[in-house]
Amino acid sequence: MIACLGRIVHDSDAESKLDDDVSTIFNSLNLQGSIENGDVSGIASKDFGGLYSFKPLYLIRPSGAEDISRIVKAAAGTPHLTVAARGNGHSINGQAMADGGYVIDMRSTGENHFKLLTVNGSPCIDVSGGALWEDVLRRCVSRFGLAPRSWTDYLSLTVGGTLSNAGVSGQAFRYGPQTSNVTELEVVTGKGDITVCSETQNPELFFGALGGLGQFGIITRARVKLQPAPDMVRWIRVVYAEFEEFTRDAELLVSQKEDESFDYVEGFVFCNNDDPVNGWPSVQLNPDQEFNPAHLPQTAGPVLYCLELGFHYRNSDQPSTVDMAVSRLVRGLGFVDGLISQVDVSYMGFLLRVKRAEQDAKANGVWDNPHPWLNLFVSKSDIVDFDRTVFKKMVKNGIGGPMLIYPLLRSKWDSRTSVALPEGEIFYIVALLRFVPKGPSVEKKVAENREIVKWCIKEGLDFKLYLPHYRAKEDWKRHFGNQWTRLEKRKANFDPMAILAPGQRIFKRTNQ
Ligand code: FAD
Predict the structure, then answer these.
(1) Which of 297, 468, 471, 505 sits most deeply, having the most CB atoms within 10 A of its CB?
(2) What is the pLDDT of residues 254-287, one digit of tens each?
(3) Any idea where the FAD-binding PCMH-type domain is (predicted)?
(4) 477 within a domain of the structure (yes/no)
């Protein structure tokens, strides 16, 4: 499809002149995709967070890397325009928006590539940066019986969107985040160059783009490591009254050898009451079983902890073998007697579990509510303090959504990527996933998040924001710490005019 370009008419001569300039540039580009004035379809000026809205000048649906390169070069030819790649818009704080700039809808490139390869004897898949992980899963399993090793909990996110952050779920303790599971990228830099990069070819761009918050280039293709897909997952939840016992078991499980542990380890905090969203009913996996609080010790506090575990197996495995293997692993854990819940689900059903929650939430009308979410990485050395102050006091009545907490291992993350992490080997991901009705309470919840971050800073906790959101350069410098200089150098090399990902608000567009 040849780009059809409309012209925006403004009152001001200066703006009309600007639009003429932009129109002229675009008319000369010969794009294969399409362009929309402003944001007629309304997708580019909103995101999952529902907290910010910035209208772009154009929404562009490219056909591939060539189109994207032309758009970036066109922006570079103007004194002020910026370019934001939009994955599936599941950011919280407007990170995929471009106020008065170009938003590139990467989903239009979702079908590109998709090729199975063998690299050094191991299977990999080439996928588009605009592909949704749920499509990658379905295709890989149904066509090849293979699957990526490391996931996010929810899969309606794009490959480029999660690789620009990290991509974390219950497999990351073993394989590292998604950024540790790609071997090659194709990237369109802020100069408009289409560059293939890997650990050995253009490594600065490769590691810069991974976890790079879109600052150095737009990922148009990723080569993702695969493994044989299991058929089934034994999905288990066990409950703890004491944080120390919960963390001891969680840390033990993520530190054990591959054949001596579960395949998936996560956890969450919930309220010690019968609230349907925040309390006991949020725990049971099998709707026929009720949570029985009579099992809880007298000493249980306002919040309880749940370890969520997954054990992979094949249809050809004997049921007794699976039962024995799971019992052996569960036997060593110190959860509250009687508070265990388990079901067997297909591997795809397990990985698509949040999709079902999304369908329910859409039916209840809460999915589209604002989401003032807060995600942090907190070092093991400070997690007890964090629990005591944040979980047991600040959010002890629940947040109207999940409160995730589970340990990760720093050694599974590559320090050459752009992701900022706490210092210690074991750190916890903490995710406060709030669903808040529209209205004044949204601002209150944003303020509560700010209080938590302020408290972490004041107490000198070893922590970083995940999916970070700061407005002031000083905060970004503190966030990146001793990686700030490397970040600035990479920016100067790959996006010297700060054209890309303006919604992150790290660098200001320059005309140099
Ligand atoms: P967008 O929100 O569209 O973009 C995010 C940023 O990346 C923007 O700055 C954008 O410009 C940039 N970007 C987008 N595409 C590209 C590209 N191809 N190349 C370069 N830059 C690009 N995260 C986890 O790690 N684990 C989870 O389990 C998890 N679960 C989630 C569940 C839900 C319901 C939601 C809403 C989010 C979840 N996230 C999780 C967070 C998610 O990984 C990030 O919000 C991610 O950025 C969303 O991907 P997206 O494709 O929608 O990206």
Answers:
(1) 468
(2) 999 888 899 999 999 999 999 999 999 999 998 8
(3) 52-229
(4) no
